[in-house]
């Protein structure tokens, strides 16, 4: 091997090194472009979603006053605690939630929360509490409503379904608690003795169930049971 061979080898090595540097520069440029593209896409996605998403509190801002006014009308003391006010909700779903939530809250105040003297006699504070919570579970909006009222009186529920001719007396005695509770979700079903402007129309729980089916919301309604 003569000196010219070393020169050619040096030139080849230099060429390979130069091409490697060019390739690295192009790879770095490609990575930067990909990073910028991802950030741009993510920002655009968030902006589009942001125009359709609103905090839960915007859709329920009128509820605390509604609860106070209705409680005062019924001579009861009730406070509403809203949890998850900043939970983001699709604005169309938020709008659809207003009617069913309003009806359920009205039913809770009218049927669930006792009068102050009744609550005190039971060892409860005179003021009843309703909890309304919004959160995300498994990628879906979850709405939970609960109160510390007297709840569903099972004997009255059993009597109502017999009176309405839904089941016979004998059959009603064979129904367990879970089976009895299914009846309160039927259209036009109510345990109220009379229909008033506030409740008793038998639409509250039924429209809640319908809403769940239509918009795909996880709806959790905690109903107290009075077995006395």
TrEMBL record:
Enzyme Commission numbers on file: 2.7.13.3
First-level EC class: transferase
Keywords attached to this entry: Kinase, Phosphoprotein, Transferase, Two-component regulatory system
GO molecular function, one term: protein histidine kinase activity
Domain of life: Bacteria
Any one Pfam family match given in the protein's UniProt record, by short name: HATPase_c
InterPro entries per UniProt: Bact_Chemotaxis_CheA, HATPase_C_sf, HATPase_dom, Sig_transdc_His_kin-like_C
The protein, known as: histidine kinase
Lineage: Bacteria, Bacillati, Cyanobacteriota, Cyanophyceae, Oscillatoriophycideae
């Amino acid at each position: 091997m003569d000196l010219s061979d070393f020169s050619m080898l040096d030139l080849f090595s230099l060429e390979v090194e130069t091409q490697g540097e060019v390739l690295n520069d192009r790879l770095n440029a490609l990575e930067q472009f990909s990073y910028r593209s991802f950030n741009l896409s993510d920002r655009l996605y968030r902006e589009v979603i942001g125009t359709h998403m609103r905090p839960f509190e915007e859709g329920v801002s009128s509820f605390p006053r509604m609860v106070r006014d209705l409680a005062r009308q019924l001579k009861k003391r009730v406070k509403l605690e809203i949890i998850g006010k900043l939970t983001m909700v699709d604005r169309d779903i938020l709008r659809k939630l207003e009617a069913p939530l309003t009806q359920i809250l009205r039913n809770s105040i009218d049927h669930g929360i006792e009068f102050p003297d009744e609550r005190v006699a039971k060892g409860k504070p005179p003021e009843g509490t309703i909890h309304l919570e919004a959160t995300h579970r498994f990628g879906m909006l979850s709405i939970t409503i609960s109160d510390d009222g007297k709840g569903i009186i099972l004997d009255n529920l059993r009597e109502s379904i017999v009176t309405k001719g839904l089941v016979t007396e004998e059959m009603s005695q064979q129904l367990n608690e879970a089976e009895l509770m299914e009846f309160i979700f039927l259209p036009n079903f109510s345990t109220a003795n009379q229909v008033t402007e506030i409740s008793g129309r038998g639409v509250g729980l039924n429209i809640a169930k319908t809403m769940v089916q239509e918009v795909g919301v996880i709806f959790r309604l905690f109903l107290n049971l009075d077995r006395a």
